[in-house]
């Protein structure tokens, strides 16, 4: 996967009361206002440079990026390792699908524990358990254990915490009351997601091919544990735990927050765009005898999203959040038509790569605005759980999009398969239109 200001368009100037007295901006325990004052000293610098003048921000970001890189490595490594050893892509796909389903069930529960007891206290043992699951999978594949052990081992990796959500929760804690800086932080985090999911599969494929089939899983597990330990060690920037929520409270669970269920359905549709695009592009490249180039082509889509996310974070956010969200969803729906047109009109993988680069430029701004809305809707003290629910919606959508596009490719061809992400993006736009402005509705009922 917050504490948030009013969803009405906030002033970009932080409200620093002169009666608060001078605060030491180098003190990591100082209030957010002192952090804002420190950032304002570098007013002529770019917003990302100012972002990392917050004490401790650079340290927890480095650890989190190391921990996040393996998220793009595990599935590719598992498929390569299992298919190479057992000679069955069907088995490899079933094992990874089981892990995805287990993650969807376990991740919100893990995030709830993180909010309740603190990031370091929960994330470290949860990560250690997930790493043991990865090592168990490696050993079961290596020594020819029964197939059921592969499913059990990979399902055990579901306890891995949502490292991206924990990082966003820290930004929300440190930048509370500074909407512009939080917009930049959320944009940076989305660009980091894209970068990790762009580099992760490439690194995994290289390690499995150049060294040995288990190398990708082994390196990913080591990076995950190292990164989480480094991240958890930065205690001064960690949001305070909020303890157990009153069971009688109707606003305790993020799922009960007004507007959240509808927003999660939009995340489901957005995830379907990602899942469908990956499967269809792999099939399209394979049809034309360029299977090895598929990873590079998909990386261009992630690169377009990463670049757009960084640019989006550098600009001054204008207008109500809901209007920005509608514009981003409309742009994604429009740009997702480009790969379909490129595939149908030219049949060229090079032209398709350019179309995917352009199409990816709408996904990061869409995700940034959606995650910002999640932070506004999530009740106090449930930040990690709220953002993990959003990621769970994405994972469910990825699975649905992959299944739908796989059927379409098999029965209608890879070119026609590009209609699936177009339809999914259209659904995301329609659901956004029908959902109204959940943040405004939440304020009207006093629940934001």
UniProtKB/TrEMBL annotation:
Q: Which residues cross the membrane?
A: 48-67, 87-110, 122-145, 203-232, 262-284, 296-314, 326-345, 351-374, 386-409, 415-434
Q: Does the keyword Nucleotide-binding apply?
A: no
Q: Low complexity composition bias: which ranges?
A: 9-36
Supply the alphabetized keyword list.
Membrane, Transmembrane, Transmembrane helix
Region (Disordered), start-end ranges: 1-40
User: Which GO molecular function terms does the record list?
Assistant: transmembrane transporter activity
Report the protein name in the record: MFS family permease
- The organism encoding this protein is Streptomyces spectabilis
């Amino acid at each position: 996967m917050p504490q948030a200001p009013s969803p009405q368009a906030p002033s970009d100037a932080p409200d620093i009361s002169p009666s608060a007295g001078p605060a030491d901006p180098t003190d990591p325990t100082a209030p957010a206002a002192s952090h804002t004052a420190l950032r304002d000293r570098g007013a002529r610098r770019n917003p990302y440079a100012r972002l990392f003048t917050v004490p401790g921000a650079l340290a927890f970001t480095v650890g989190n990026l190391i921990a996040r890189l393996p998220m793009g490595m595990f599935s590719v490594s598992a498929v390569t390792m299992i298919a190479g050893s057992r000679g069955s892509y069907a088995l490899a796909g079933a094992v990874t699908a089981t892990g995805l389903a287990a993650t969807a069930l376990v991740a919100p529960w893990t995030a709830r524990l993180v909010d309740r007891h603190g990031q370091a206290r929960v994330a470290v043992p949860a990560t250690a358990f997930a790493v043991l699951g990865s090592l168990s999978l490696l050993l079961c594949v290596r020594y020819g254990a029964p197939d059921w052990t592969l499913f059990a081992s990979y399902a055990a990796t579901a306890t891995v915490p949502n490292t991206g959500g924990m990082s966003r929760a820290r930004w929300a804690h440190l930048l509370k009351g500074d909407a512009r800086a939080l917009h930049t932080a959320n944009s940076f985090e989305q660009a980091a997601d894209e970068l990790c999911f762009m580099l992760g599969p490439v690194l995994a494929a290289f390690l499995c091919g150049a060294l040995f089939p288990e190398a990708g899983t082994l390196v990913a597990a080591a990076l995950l544990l190292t990164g989480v330990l480094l991240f958890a060690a930065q205690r001064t920037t960690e949001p305070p735990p909020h303890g157990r929520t009153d069971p009688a409270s109707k606003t305790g669970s993020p799922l009960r927050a007004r507007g959240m269920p509808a927003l999660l359905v939009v995340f489901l549709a957005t995830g379907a765009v990602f899942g469908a695009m990956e499967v269809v592009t792999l099939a399209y490249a394979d049809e034309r005898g360029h299977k090895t180039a598929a990873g590079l082509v998909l990386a261009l889509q992630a690169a377009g999203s990463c670049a757009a996310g960084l640019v989006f974070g550098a600009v001054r956010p204008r207008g109500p959040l809901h209007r920005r969200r509608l514009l981003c969803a409309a742009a994604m729906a429009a740009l997702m038509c480009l790969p379909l047109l490129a595939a149908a009109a030219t049949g060229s993988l090079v032209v398709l790569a350019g179309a995917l680069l352009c199409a990816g430029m709408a996904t990061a701004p869409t995700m940034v605005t959606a995650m910002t809305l999640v932070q506004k809707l999530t009740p106090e003290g449930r930040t990690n759980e709220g953002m993990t629910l959003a990621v769970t919606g994405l994972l469910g959508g990825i699975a649905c999009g992959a299944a739908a596009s796989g059927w379409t490719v098999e029965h209608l061809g890879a070119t026609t398969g590009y209609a699936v992400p177009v339809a999914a993006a259209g659904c995301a736009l329609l659901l956004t239109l029908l959902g109204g402005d959940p943040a405004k509705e939440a304020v009207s009922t006093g629940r934001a």
